[in-house]
Design goal:
The chain is of the alpha+beta class and about 325 residues long. It has seven helices and 18 strands. The strands form six sheets. Strands 13, 14, 15, 16 and 17 form a five-stranded antiparallel sheet that branches. A four-stranded antiparallel sheet has the order 2-1-3-4, with helices on one face. A hairpin with a 4-residue loop joins β5 and β6. The relative contact order is 0.10.
């Protein structure tokens, strides 16, 4: 019986790619510590509970096509095999094999491999990491060698993308997106706003204007420290927020000292005097008026009380956090 010859329209079944969920490659690394083959260092670390694999110490590999154990190379040494282990990329320094082209390159300054294309990045010796070429940034000494301040996991060797905010205190992009979704906008390390907050500050201005304070609080002020411009000043006391007069930010915190009362007249240089303990005690008995729409406020939009609501502008319909083009470019992704 003659078998039918497949035509171009017939589906072609391809063999599954070799490797693991982390990398597609045609060899396994032989762990010097365990003397066992693993598809990659992550597979080893997931299987081992008391140690990790130092990939630079790997001297041998096992071919996934012919199963031959051999000295480390990017080409199988078996004469009848000749399989290329890293079809798209091989780094003899990091002992990294990959059959998928991701624009990989080895950075001597970082000491590891990166992805995204060498021509798109330049290494900053002060920060200790690769940054988008031609983009200005604030230098922080060895910033990538710190752990993510949110999840406390390593950033420098992580396979997760790293977000670089204006203050250059790195955190994982996924951690940054989670913060923004919950209304947290300030850097966990220094408190500086991690995005443009001008629209949010304008919303708070309107909320302050529509929320009058009791007459007992008229003319009261507090010393504040602005986390965005790092300036101290005297701001009008308000329960919604206290605005920095230097930069207009509400990303402020109380500075030392008690409540102050303005004693100078309009047109004169402002002079303040601290409230006495008796005056402060009187204020503790003052009740605040309840807005007419309080039922609407508490029944709608009360799911997020962790910080200023900043997600309106940055969370898309699919749940992904949208960042502007400049922010997207200030991203570093570690490969291995």
């Amino acid at each position: 019986m003659t078998e039918a010859v497949p035509t171009a329209e017939d589906p072609v079944t391809l063999p599954p790619p070799l490797g693991c969920s982390h990398y597609q490659r045609k060899c396994q690394l032989v762990s010097p510590c365990c003397d066992q083959p693993y598809n990659c260092r992550f597979c080893h670390d997931e299987d081992s509970t008391n140690h990790t694999l130092d990939r630079r110490s790997v001297k041998e590999v096992v071919c996934l096509v012919c199963s031959a154990r051999q000295a480390l190379s990017n080409l199988c040494s078996s004469q009848d095999c000749g399989t290329v282990f890293g079809g798209a990329y091989f780094c003899g320094v990091c002992k990294l094999f990959d059959d998928v082209d991701k624009g990989q390159f080895h950075c001597d300054g970082c000491g590891i491999c990166r992805i995204g294309g060498r021509e798109k990045f330049s290494h900053c010796d002060t920060c200790g990491l690769c940054l988008p070429a031609g983009k200005s940034h604030k230098c922080v000494s060895n910033t990538s060698h710190n752990n993510c301040p949110v999840c406390l996991e390593d950033i420098h060797t992580s396979r997760l993308e790293a977000h670089i905010p204006p203050c250059s205190h790195l955190l994982h992009l996924t951690c940054y997106q989670d913060m923004v979704r919950t209304g947290l906008y300030a850097c966990p390390t220094c408190g500086l706003s991690m995005q443009d907050m001008s629209m949010v500050w304008a919303d708070i201005d309107r909320e302050v204007a529509s929320t009058p304070m009791p007459r007992e609080y008229a003319g009261l002020y507090r010393e504040i420290l602005c986390k965005d411009c790092n300036q101290t000043g005297t701001a009008t006391f308000h329960i919604v927020g206290m605005k920095c007069l230097s930069c207009g930010s509400y990303n402020t915190t109380l500075d030392k000292g008690p409540l102050l009362r303005l004693v100078s007249k309009e047109g004169e240089e402002k002079v303040f005097t601290p409230l006495t303990e008796t005056e402060i005690g009187t204020l503790s008995n003052v009740s605040f008026p309840i807005p007419d729409n309080v039922s609407d406020i508490t029944s709608e939009g009360s799911d997020n009380e962790d910080g200023w609501e900043t997600t309106e502008e940055v969370v898309e319909e699919n749940g992904e956090v949208a960042t502007d083009s400049n922010t997207r470019e200030m991203v570093e992704e570690d490969l291995d």
